[in-house]
Write a structure and sequence with these properties.
The chain is α/β, with parallel strands linked by helices. A hairpin with a 6-residue loop joins strand 5 and strand 6.
């Protein structure tokens, strides 16, 4: 069974792309062209076919092409067991609409249709910056395994925002907190369980894998002294922490304080203390492990979006990465400034050249050298 893939992609007024229509096959897609031509914009559009704010975490109004500001649209044909049509877009700063096979639905429904993972240069500092980015990375991986993870996360965050409002207003009546904390505990326990299951899937996928990239020992650090025994333990901890939270004006404990920790397994060195090259290799390794785990779990690897990944690898590592992607059968959309960065792919990939003309991105199909 092959991987999930796009067979058609259509962009309208998305960043530098006024209009673009692409027909592709399940092979990897090598996208090349000069800096600023619109390569990353192209794969960012694909990232909007999954829940959330895309690979740049852009607000809805930020991706509409300027100066027209006519709104934007991304549509795709997804090939899985059958063909599925996805369309998303927004007018102005309005909440984006989502349609699957012509029927209006929620963003979270996208997670069950198209599983997408990405790696972008901004993530290179993942191991040395704040925990928020690592939580986001972990939750994106978790969402690929458990499409309902988005709903659990949203439910937890909504209840926590309401609780934080009470805390800021210095409300002390326990009855106001009890219902919110029960909702937080139920959703939070599911979030924790989903994350732990994701880490186990990644560990299993790394064990015995034939790969040129280093394995990572992964763990989930709560950072807030709340155990992961379930909803009742969380509810009790929230109640016990009210006085402290009142002083702070916000919720100080819970899954929103969790952190992903990684150790370079072959050296026993925490990822934050590794070299820049090693940190990048660990990220690539985890993306590949995620893809292998999904292939084992659902029978298909995800669509991969890899921005400028080849530029940070030597020739041997690039070739190894391409070999692993092709062995997985994954449709990986990869960007690079020069077509030569993809020489090791040869005829195993399809090639798109992105250029700029009159402040517009232009995409053309090219044959491999």
């Amino acid at each position: 069974m092959g991987g999930l893939s796009l067979s058609h992609l259509r962009l309208s007024h998305f960043r530098s792309h006024r209009q673009a229509r692409l027909d592709v096959d399940p092979r990897p897609v090598a996208i090349f062209g000069p800096n600023g031509a619109g390569k990353t914009n192209l794969i960012e559009a694909i990232s909007f076919l999954s829940p959330g704010r895309g690979l740049r975490r852009a607000a809805t109004g930020e991706v509409a092409r300027k100066p027209e500001s006519l709104g934007w649209k991304v549509a795709a044909r997804v090939e899985a067991n059958h063909t599925i049509e996805i369309e998303t877009g927004a007018e102005g700063t309005a909440t984006r609409d989502v349609r699957i096979d012509g029927k209006a639905t929620t963003q979270t429904a996208l997670a069950s249709v198209l599983r997408v993972l990405w790696l972008i240069p901004a993530m290179d500092r993942l191991w040395i910056e704040g925990a928020e980015g690592r939580r986001r990375f972990l939750d994106r991986a978790t969402l690929s395994f458990v499409p309902d993870h988005a709903e659990a996360s949203l439910s937890y965050e909504r209840a926590m925002r309401e609780r934080n409002r009470l805390l800021k207003d210095m409300v002390r009546d326990a009855h106001w907190y009890a219902a919110l904390e029960a909702r937080m505990a139920e959703a939070g326990a599911q979030v924790q369980a989903n994350r732990i299951a994701c880490l186990e899937a990644l560990r299993t996928a790394q064990d015995g894998a034939e790969t040129a990239f280093p394995a990572a020992d992964l763990s989930l650090s709560d950072g807030s002294a709340i155990p992961a025994q379930g909803a009742e333990a969380l509810r009790a901890a929230f109640a016990e922490g009210r006085a402290r939270d009142l002083s702070a004006g916000r919720t100080l404990s819970g899954p929103h304080r969790g952190d992903l920790e990684a150790v370079f397994a072959g050296k026993g060195v925490p990822a934050r203390d590794c070299s820049t090259g090693e940190q990048k290799a660990l990220l690539i390794s985890l993306i590949l492990a995620n893809a292998r785990a999904l292939q084992a779990q659902v029978g298909r690897p995800p669509v991969l979006l890899l921005d400028e990944v080849a530029a940070h690898l030597d020739e041997a590592r690039r070739a190894a990465l391409y070999d692993e992607i092709c062995a997985l059968g994954a449709q990986a959309w990869m960007t690079g400034t020069e077509v030569g960065l993809f020489d090791a792919l040869g005829g195993r990939a399809q090639y798109l050249e992105v250029t700029e003309a009159d402040a517009l991105s232009v995409v053309n199909r090219r044959e491999p050298a």
